[in-house]
C-alpha cells in the first residue's frame, strides 16, 4: 500500500511511517481494518499525540525490521519476543513473516534481524523459500548500507544443524550488508539463549538508531489486534470427546480421528492452522529408563521427583546425538566411546532408535543430575487441523497416525504424542492444547479460485478443513483432491465424506493412488503426471496448489512431478519450469505444509 500515491498525498507522516503503516495494514482482514479505523479516529478526537505513547516521537535514523521463517512456530515465537524487547526500548520495529515480505524491500531496509529455523537436510522452512532462493541467486543485488544479524533455530541431532541460518548470514554478507552482531545457532533448548542474543543484538542496533524513539504507528496497530490468552506456554486444558480408529481391521496403519472440545477457551483457528498438543511420557517407558540407569524415581529435581520430571518435562522418545556423546563421556565403555566418535553411526542410531534402546545396549548407572543433563526439554507436537470452525464451532478435529513399531527383542516402541492421544479414554481425556497459526498455508481469499490438494495419508487433514470451509462459504471455485494410501478397502480416510463432496459437486475431481492394490506401486506423484494436461490447464486458470504430508520423500517427489508437468504441458525447459514454480510460490499459489 503506497499512501503517498493516493489522492490524499498531503500526509503528515514521513515516507518511512507510511511504508510501515502500509505494510501492517496489508496484513489485516476487513474486520480488523474496520476496527483499526475506528480506533485511530477515536484517538484523533481525544487529542492523543501518539498511539504508542503520549510523548513526541523522535525521528529515528532508520528502523528495524525483524523477519522470521518458521516451520513449527518456534522462530515466530522468538521473533515476536525480540520485537517486544525492541518496543520496550522505544525502537521503531516491524515484524513480518518471510512469506509476506517482498524480497526487493531489503534494499530499502536499514536494520534487519533474521530469525529462521532449519528442517530436513538443511533446508529452509516453507515460508522462507522464496527469499532464500532470491538471495542465493543474487537476484536482489547489492545490500550496501544494510546492518543485519541472524539467529538460527535447529536440532543438533541433524547433520545440517542450523544450516538455513548460516546460509542467510552468508548470503547477506556476500551482498554487501554489514553484520552488526554475530550469528547464533541455537539447539532445541533455545529459550534463554534466544532472549540473551536478542538483548545483545538490540544493543548493537540501538547504538546506530536515534535514541528515545517511541514505538512506530505500525507496532501500535499490530499490538491493537491482540492475541488469545492461551498459547504454547499457557495451553488450554481441553476435553477429548472422540477417539475413533478410521483405518480397517487389516490395515498396516492405525490412524485415529480425534475430536477435542474447545468450549470456553476462546481459541480460534483457520483452515491450514495446526494444533499443538502437550503430552506425558508413557509410565512404562519412564520405568524402563529408571531401571536401566539404576534410579528409583524418587530423587529430587527442580521439577519434583525424578519420575515426575521424566513423565512431563523431558523428551524420552526423540533420541539426539548429544545423548550418545554425553553418555560416552560419562561411561567407561570402549564400544560406546568408539560409536560416539563415528558421526555416521550416531546419525543412524538417532534416525532409528530411542533413548531407552541406547541404554539397553550400553547400560550404565547414573545420578539423577547426570540423566537430566543428558536429556532435552519435552516439546509439544503439532498436528494439522482437520476441521473448519465454520462447521464444527467450538471443536477441533485431528487426523493422527499412531506411531508404533516392533523391535528385534519383541518389544514395541511408540511415538510420544500420537500414542498418548490414541490411549486417552474419553472419561478422563483432558488434553493440553494451543493453536499454532500457519499463515503460509491458506485458502485463496477469492472463493471462486480453483484449488488443487495433494494429501496422502494423514496429509489429508487440512484438506478436510478446506472442504468444510469452502462448503460453508458457498465457494464456486473448483476443487481437485489427490489422495493416496496402501489399500482402498482399509485406508481410504474419510471416504464417505469425500464421496458426499463429489456427489454434491463441491469436489470437482478426485484422483486416488492406492499403492498396494496392484502389482506396480502407484503414488500420488504418478497420478499427477497422468493428469498432467488437465493439471496444467488448472494452473493456467489460476489454481492454487497445496501439498501436505511427508517432507523427506513424498513432498520432493510431488514437486518433481509438478515440474515435469509444467515442462511437458507448458512446453518449457527445466529452468523455465522452475521459474514458473517459483512464481507460483511468490504469488502464494504453491503452498506446502510438510513435516
SSE topology:
Elements (H helix, E strand, L loop, with lengths): L14 H11 L4 H16 L18 E6 L4 H15 L4 E5 L13 E7 L11 H8 L10 E7 L9 H12 L3 E2 L4 E3 L4 H16 L10 H9 L10 E10 L9 E7 L12 E5 L4 H10 L7 E2 L2 E2 H7 L8 H10 L3 H7 L2 H10 L2 H7 L6 H7 L6 E4 L4 H4 L2 E7 L2 E3 L5 E3 L1 H7 L7 E7 L14 E4 L6 H13 L5 E7 L2 H4 L3 H10 L4 E6 L9 H7 L1 H9 L3 E6 L4 H16 L4 H13 L3 E5 L1
Parallel strand pairs: 1-2, 1-3, 3-4, 4-5, 4-6, 17-18, 17-20, 18-19, 20-21
Antiparallel strand pairs: 7-8, 7-16, 8-13, 9-12, 9-16, 10-11, 14-15
Helix pairs in contact: 1-7, 3-6, 8-13, 10-11, 20-22, 21-22, 22-23
Compact description:
The protein is an alpha/beta fold and 595 residues long.
Features:
21 strands, 6-stranded parallel β-sheet, 595 residues, 6-stranded antiparallel β-sheet, globular, alpha/beta
Protein architecture, described:
Helix 10 (321-330) packs antiparallel against helix 11 (334-340) and helix 20 (524-530) runs parallel beside helix 22 (554-569). The protein is globular, with a radius of gyration of 26 Å. The protein is of the alpha/beta class. It contains 23 helices and 21 strands.
